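User: My collaborator sent over this chain with a note saying "see what the structure looks like." That's all I know about it. Can you take a look?
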Amino acid sequence: MIFTDRIKIYNGIILTPHRLIKGGCVLIAQGKIVEVTENNIDFEGAELIDAKGMYISPGFIDIHVHGGGGHDFMDNTLEAFLGIAETHAKYGTTAMTPTTLSCEKADLLKTLDLYTEADQLNIAGARFIGMHIEGPYFSMLQKGAQDPRYIRDPIVEEYEEILSYSSIIKRWSAAPELKGALEFGDFLRKKGVLAAIAHTDAIYEEVLAAYERGFTHATHFYSCMSGVSRRNAYRYAGVVESAYLLDGMSVEIIADGVHLPPALLKLVYKIKGAEKTALITDAMRAAGMPPGPSILGSLKDGLPVIVEDNVAKLTDRSAFAGSVATADRLVRNMVRLADVPLLEAVKMISATPAEIMKVDAFTGSLQPGKDADVVIFDQDINIFTTMVKGKVVYSKA
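Assistant: Without extra context I'll predict from the sequence alone. Here is the result:
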């Protein structure tokens, strides 16, 4: 691993927030970006990294990820937390929000404890930027792969206890139409936690009310959420249409080429744009692993699945059971399948998720004063170098 006080990355195509720079360099000191220049200037005493004509990009930020490398965060082991961080760093992820599944409260509290411990030991992988709790306040009609044993309406005493227990919770996904969900949104906003709409059968009027109470983001857009429905002969707009209508609502998409076809990737980009669309892996433990049998969720009580065709499926192959995507694949698919310009595709997995999670003050773009979270990749989005806060945590060379 390379770790010096001063680093110069040169001989590449730099992806800034608004343009490409050829022939320039990125200067780094003490883990921070000092300067992004249009010329290859001297930087005395610096470690030199030759990008060899490849792209020099801000690091990828995955704001919804469950696992990878054979681990799941719900395994509740340090090995799992660190293994997932190291696995995804190989594919360009420099920051992530570890994500839970609906589970027993005791298991969730243990996961929060392990996050804090792992965060101190995580020196060789993507860094953690807060915990994402997914569930258990969901619609049973849109439960997807969430365990129905734990699904329920929001319980005031429960979520107040959990949010008081740990300050590292930065996002919570829930169904806004449930009894008590709007009050839950109020409490999340008061605590500075992002409220996200997920696993929901809501109609437009319910989404609008929730948006006004803090639910400003849509979790794995299109997956496990309502579209246009017919009730008592009348048609109602669902969550999908609501997210399109509400300009201020951000969305995230699993651009693995399986969960959403190219036409929908194009539609999301056309309507919401790169500024309101984040790319996520939503990856389970099989990400970065060979195809074959795996487990969705924890080793203790997870669901057996089979990984084939670049996705996890139920063993009877009746439905998808999770993503095995990595961040490089998301960018590649947006460029190749959705015809999105590279600069915009990278924004969707760097600057945009950083803004959604309110970490854009220190990461998400190559700008002076921000942390040196950097990725170097070729024209096919193959990752050659991943750097977190000025430290190379992965190098293909």
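A starting point for your reply to your collaborator: The mean pLDDT is 96.
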